[in-house]
Design brief:
This protein is an all-alpha fold. The protein is globular and about 70 Å long. The chain starts with a helix and ends with a helix.
């Protein structure tokens, strides 16, 4: 019975893996052929030989390398910022006592119910008043903290760190910052790493906000560079898929190196409390 369950378990995991990987493989197939492959019946599932030609067109059509560097700067800064700032805010909501703490936390949680598209206009007005339009800080600063990140870290800190540890640290003369940096943050570092990685991926894949605030090609992120590969009259799917595949490769490499640590961080939080 156990062998049968194990066999079916591995079969389902294998099928789920194939379903998840097929869009990436199909992207590569189209990126190695032409637009006709995407609409061909029956569909072609064998890669062609035009990938390097189409990749060369990507680099010659848009400043793709510069766009990838911009995405790395934006996504990396946001990932680190969310790991630190959200854990700091989560520590304040979880372990510090101050007037209005519960009300403020409720407001933070309620902002998660508001669609991000509704904040585009006021956010753009603020960025414009700061003269940040067409700059990378217009992408970085709004993403340095998030309601989900604060909620995530607050829950981890509440279940991980006991009040007795904090009281002992205060008796030893530690202030709130020292308690956070030397005690709280090291204990929830796996959760902060997962949050930073999620922030990195979200900002890397973000299209709407960069499309609104970025104007010049040298400021493009990878997603906007892919959009620039398409003109309004004709869409070369092979060229677009080639750019999309190149923009996806950094994320694939990232998950190859940190995927196990990410899973460990998620499971660490799942078994707390």
């Amino acid at each position: 019975m156990n062998d049968r369950i194990r066999w079916w378990t591995y079969l389902l995991i294998g099928l789920a893996t194939l379903v998840c990987l097929f869009p990436l493989y199909w992207m590569f197939v189209v990126a190695t052929t032409d637009s006709a492959t995407a609409t061909q019946l029956p569909p072609k599932i064998v890669p062609g030989g035009n990938f390097f030609h189409l990749a060369g067109l990507v680099f010659s059509t848009v400043p793709f390398v510069r766009s990838v560097i911009n995405s790395l700067i934006v996504a990396g800064t946001i990932g680190v910022g969310q790991a630190v700032l959200c854990s700091l805010a989560g520590f304040a909501f979880a372990k510090l006592r101050f007037p209005g703490r519960n009300v403020l936390f409720l407001i933070v949680v309620l902002t998660m119910t508001v669609p991000t598209q509704l904040a585009v206009i006021p956010q753009y007005m603020i960025i414009s008043s700061l003269n940040w339009v067409d700059t990378l800080q217009a992408l970085i600063v709004p993403g340095l903290a998030s309601a989900f990140g604060i909620f995530w870290m607050r829950q981890h800190l509440s279940s991980t760190i006991s009040d007795e540890i904090l009281q002992a640290a205060r008796i030893d003369g530690a202030n709130s910052w020292q308690i956070y940096w030397r005690i709280a943050f090291p204990l929830v570092r796996p959760a902060a790493f997962v949050l930073g990685l999620l922030g990195f991926v979200y900002s890397w894949n973000d299209f709407l906000w960069p499309f609104i605030v970025l104007k010049s090609p040298e400021m493009y992120t990878a997603q906007i560079a892919i959009k620039a590969l398409q003109n309004s009259l004709d869409i070369d799917l092979g060229l677009a898929m080639s750019g999309s595949f190149l923009a996806t490769l950094p994320l694939v490499v990232l998950f190859i190196f940190v995927g196990r640590r990410m899973v460990a961080g998620i499971m660490d939080g799942a078994f707390k409390g």
